[in-house]
Amino acid sequence: MRELSLHFLDIITNSIKADAKNIRFYIIVKDNVLNMEIIDDGKGMSEEFLEKVVDPFKTTRTTRNIGMGIPLLKQAAEAAGGKFKIESTLGKGTTVKASFILKHIDRAPLGNLADALIPVISENFDFFMHYEVDGEIFIFDTKEIKKMLDGVPIDSQEILAYLNGYLADNIKNINGGKIL
Questions:
Q1: What's the rounded Cα separation, in Å, for the pair 152 and 173?
Q2: CATH number 3.30.565.10 given to 4-174
Q3: I want to staple 129 with a disulfide (CB 3.0 to 4.6 A). Which of 6, 25, 45, 122 is the partner?
């Protein structure tokens, strides 16, 4: 994948498929390192499967016996001088962490994070994002947004279009106008 945001979308999609009701997503950029963490309360993985999850030919899917999301994220992190870690407890959830050296020649660009995240916004679970660059913080919390919407579905086309612009504008402001 050419953009990190698509890797993150893939991992968040895994959380949704694991029936997570709460997904927490952190991006923190500090001291030339982009740190990403996704925490969910989904089904989790057994220790046996967790040991094999970075193998692209291991998957829980029944249609195609290939699961590239986690292996590709791991490869992208390591290629950019960073690290990758995954922890999971069956029945409790999964945490995926990856770091990337920001100015590494092999680091993929972050890409359009707002466009990547909008397709996963849903009434079916709560999504929290903490986005931080050099101490400037933006919080996006669908639980709070749903309260403000007072019964209007968060995944309606009009709301999603607004949220896409809201996310894009705030991420751009936190980035100070620069492209990560």
A1: 28
A2: yes
A3: 25
Q: What is the C-alpha end-to-end distance of the chain, expressed in Å?
A: 16
Q: Measure Cα distances from 38 to 12, 63, 154 in Å.
A: 7, 25, 21
Give percent helix, percent strand, percent coil of the chain, each to the nearest 5: 35, 25, 40
pLDDT digits (tens, 9 = 90+) for 43-72: 999 998 888 888 766 555 444 433 468 999
Q: With contact defined as beta carbons under 8 Å apart, do 40 and 93 qualify?
A: yes
d(CA 94, CA 28): 19
* H-run or E-run covering 24: strand 22-30
Q: pTM of the entire structure? A: 0.91
